[in-house]
Amino acid sequence: MKITDIRIGEISVPLKTPFKTALRTVNSVEDIIVEVHTDTGNIGYGEAPPTGVITGDTKGSIIGALNDHIKKNIIGMDIENFEEIMIKLDKCIVKNNSAKAAVDIALYDLYGQMLNAPIYKILGGYRNEIITDITISVNDPEEMARDSIDAIRRGFKTLKIKVGKDAATDIQRMKAIRDAVGYDVQLRIDANQGWKPKEAVIALRKMEDEGLDIEFVEQPVEAHDIDGLKFVTDNISIPVLADESVFSPMDALKILQKRAADFVNIKLMKTGGIYNALKICSVAEIYGVECMIGCMLEAKVSVNAAVHLAAAKSIITKIDLDGPVLCSEDPVLGGSVFDEYKITLNNDPGFGIKGINGIRYIDR
Question: How far apart are the C-alpha atoms of 352 and 80, rounded to whole Å?
Fold first, then answer.
């Protein structure tokens, strides 16, 4: 099964409601689609969101990395030589992790097709169903409370609340949501690097004093501020999850060696795909630290790949893969079934993607 071509396209999928964090506001998923074609007629599908504010990857940089570096290095290679392909993919250009992730996902798709097995079974087969949280965008406290009630009515038992805009208002946001949903619902919060270390400690201690029962706080401080992250971890009882601070296996190792966070968050667009994400899982297993798996604003192709990784590995205990349920439509044929909070995998080879409606191919 030799790689003969890599086609590039783009899709646009409107969101049900605007997605708002401390870093940005987004109204639609605008992602790059990769098709890796082979001499057997098999096609592997991958996807990359241009999330410049987090990964540094833009639409133009993703396309440029694919056309100018990745294509010339792996076209002609055989999927049987999987390790060699992955090494070449990783080394052909520095960073550009989203472009690498899109191709990595497509290659794993083909690997599963070659072996006639779903990827989650190849990687470990721990389970075939997972439960995700849903994200509540940052807005006024009253609107966030209404959005939270709506999510509960849809069956979600865990809400990830976006904060980080203003610490004092964030406390009011969390109080309004907890009052609205009661205590049978798990609340986790994501500050998206929005606080300073001391500000984070003050805000989170007040949330503790208010008895808001926060499951954990995600990335309370800037990504590069590992000492600040450790300061927060050491000075609150709410567990801390490192997200934007962890792109690579080495990042994860440094975080865990310094005990700068209680958990780490894996996102395929940060790691460059499944190949390096598996290494982060191994590091976490060595340290006995659980992982969360999350996504950017992505359609089902790449989130489906993350689902397979989550289903394969027992070290991944927290799931934040709500991208497809935030979209107003699903252009992807096949793959896992996203039924609100419940995601069910099937036994189709690879990732089970049969096609994608509405691709606009980009000719070079």
Answer: 19
Task: Give exposure, 124-133, as e/b (b: 16+ Cβ within 10 Å).
Answer: beeeeebebb
Q: Please count the residues of the chain.
A: 364
Catalytic residue ranges: 162, 267
Region 286-314: what's the mean pLDDT?
A: 97
- Mind listing the pLDDT tens digit for each residue in 111-160? 999 999 999 999 999 999 999 999 999 999 999 999 999 999 999 999 99
Residue 165: pLDDT band with limits 50, 70, 90:
confident
How many angstroms separate the CA atoms of 33 and 305, rounded?
14
Q: How far apart are CA 336 and CA 345, in angstroms?
A: 5
pLDDT at 364: 57
**Cβ neighbours, 10 Å, residue 211:** 10
Q: Which one, of 282, 298, 276, lies nearest residue 356 by Cα?
A: 298
Contact assessment for residue 261 and residue 236, using Cβ atoms and an 8 Å cutoff: no
Q: Which of 301, 352, 285, 255 minimizes the C-alpha distance to 126?
A: 285
215-225 pLDDT, tens per residue?
A: 999 999 999 99
pLDDT band for position 175 (cuts 50, 70, 90) = very high
Do residues 202 and 209 lie in contact, with contact meaning Cβ atoms separated by under 8 Å?
no
Residue 260 near residue 226, CB atoms below 8 Å: yes
The span from the CA of 64 to the CA of 133, in Å, is: 34
Q: How far apart are CA 238 and CA 25, in angstroms?
A: 27
DSSP secondary structure string, 122-176? HHT---SEEE--EEE----HHHHHHHHHHHHHTT--EEEEE--S-HHHHHHHHHH
Q: 240 with 262: CB under 8 angstroms? A: yes
Tokens of 349: 């080879």
Note the pTM of the prediction, 2 decimals: 0.97
**How far is residue 110's CA from residue 107's CA, in Å, rounded to a whole number?**
5
